[in-house]
């Protein structure tokens, strides 16, 4: 019990740091009422997988699992839906997908990344599937979606042990959450665009991901 309390306390402290990093001045608001902030956007990408790392507030955090890269197929792994049933993320094939991976919806950067996916895609949500993956429980994801009035994003949870993170080389070992990522997957399950933000407090370039998805639709 003492060990579990220590783990939870450490995770809470790290998430608090993650929530503070990258928060800046207020920006544009939307009809849904979300107030965007002028958060820094990552210009490059980290490399997924064991032996690589991302930073959180400048401190390196090691990644775990077998890394993915552009050109790889989407890998079989089960994640939880809102009703706690499991779905193989690779079985979402048939449409172009934008998969947005966030550490925790309880942080400001993750919140903005998810709103951006939902609200700034300029009609892509009518043609592609928008997916958000995090380690938050399905209950927490459902509460977030309801409060944020987000109905065009499918939320999938990796709370059961980080299997998605390990399978894709995106699990941050300590603390236990996912590296901030956006990927675009074609209808045949091939990853065509991938960005892993080198610093967890930075936004991914969502507009670049949207452009990659539109290019796939044209092709």
What key phrases describe this protein's structure?
single chain; 219 residues; alpha+beta; Glutaredoxin; 4-stranded antiparallel β-sheet; globular
From the 3D coordinates, which CATH architecture would you assign? Answer: 3-Layer(aba) Sandwich
First-residue to last-residue Cα separation: 55 Å
Shape: globular
Order of helices and strands: HEEEEEEEHEHEHEEEEH
Percentage of residues in helical conformation: 25-40%
What name is given to the CATH topology? Glutaredoxin
Mean pLDDT: 88
Task: State the domain count.
Answer: 1
> What is the CATH level 1 assignment?
Alpha Beta
Strand order of the largest sheet: 9-8-7-12-13
State the CATH superfamily name.
Glutaredoxin
Gyration radius from CA atoms, angstroms: 16 Å
Unreliable stretches (pLDDT < 50, length at least 5) are 1-27
Task: Please describe what this structure looks like.
By secondary structure, the chain is of the alpha+beta class. It has a single domain, classed as Glutaredoxin, CATH 3.40.30. Helices cover 28% and strands 24% of the residues. The chain is built from 5 helices and 13 strands. The strands form 4 sheets. It has a 5-stranded mixed beta sheet with strand order 9-8-7-12-13. It has a 4-stranded antiparallel beta sheet with strand order 3-4-10-11. Helix 2 (108-119) links the parallel strand 7 and strand 8 (129-134).
């Amino acid at each position: 019990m003492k060990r579990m309390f220590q783990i939870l306390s450490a995770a809470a402290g790290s998430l608090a740091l993650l929530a503070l990093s990258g928060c800046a001045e207020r920006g544009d608001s939307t009809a849904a009422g979300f107030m965007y902030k002028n958060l820094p956007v990552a210009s490059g990408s980290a490399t997924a997988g064991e032996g690589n790392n991302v930073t959180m507030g400048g401190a390196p955090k090691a990644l775990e699992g077998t890394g993915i890269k552009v050109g790889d197929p989407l890998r079989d792994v089960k994640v939880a839906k809102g009703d706690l049933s499991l779905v193989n993320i690779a079985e979402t094939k048939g449409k172009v997908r934008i998969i947005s991976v966030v550490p925790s919806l309880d942080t400001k950067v993750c919140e903005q990344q998810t709103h951006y996916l939902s609200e700034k895609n300029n009609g892509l949500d009518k043609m592609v599937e928008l997916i958000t993956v995090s380690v938050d429980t399905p209950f927490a994801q459902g509460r977030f979606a309801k409060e944020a009035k987000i109905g065009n994003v499918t939320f999938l949870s990796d709370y059961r042990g980080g299997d998605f993170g390990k399978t894709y080389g995106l699990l941050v070992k300590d603390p236990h959450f996912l590296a901030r990522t956006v990927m675009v997957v074609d209808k045949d399950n091939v990853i065509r665009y991938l960005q892993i933000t080198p610093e967890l407090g930075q936004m991914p370039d969502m507009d670049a991901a949207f452009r990659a998805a539109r290019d796939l639709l044209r092709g």
